[in-house]
Amino acid sequence: MSMNVKKGDAVKIIAGSDKGKTGQVLAVDTKSQRVVLKGDGLKTVKCFVKPRSAQEKGGIIEREASINVSNVMVLCPSCNAATRVAHSFTVDDNGKKTKSRVCKKCGASLDVKAAKAAKTAKKAAPKKTATKAKKTATAEEN
Length: 142
Fold this sequence. Notes:
Elements: E1 10-13, E2 22-29, E3 34-38, E4 44-49, E5 59-64, E6 66-68, E7 72-75, E8 82-83, E9 85-91, E10 97-103, H1 112-141
Antiparallel strand pairs: 1-2, 1-7, 2-3, 3-6, 4-5, 7-8, 9-10
């Protein structure tokens, strides 16, 4: 089963002892349906670390606790609200289909990489057509 939360997303916790707090996703485990969050005041777990070599120190450390994915909602970067995730499909000029995550409330893209790629594609497309037009014009003149 696929999850709508990805590494690097800003999320809001909607259930549990940390309800109402926000954090950033550090890791996603699709098999156990859990995410590890980083944020101020979020639940931590104490665990023992065994030294791997003679120079390293072992001991008890605190690390971020994992939480079930059903207890978090993605925060939309444009409307700053916890939202459900919709999926939209777009077709490039080359005919390649891309799937992106979209905010259900405002319709903004939740994928940072996809948004950056779309912006660069829009900027690059007019330049390529202009250079092709110049090349064809110079070829016709010769």
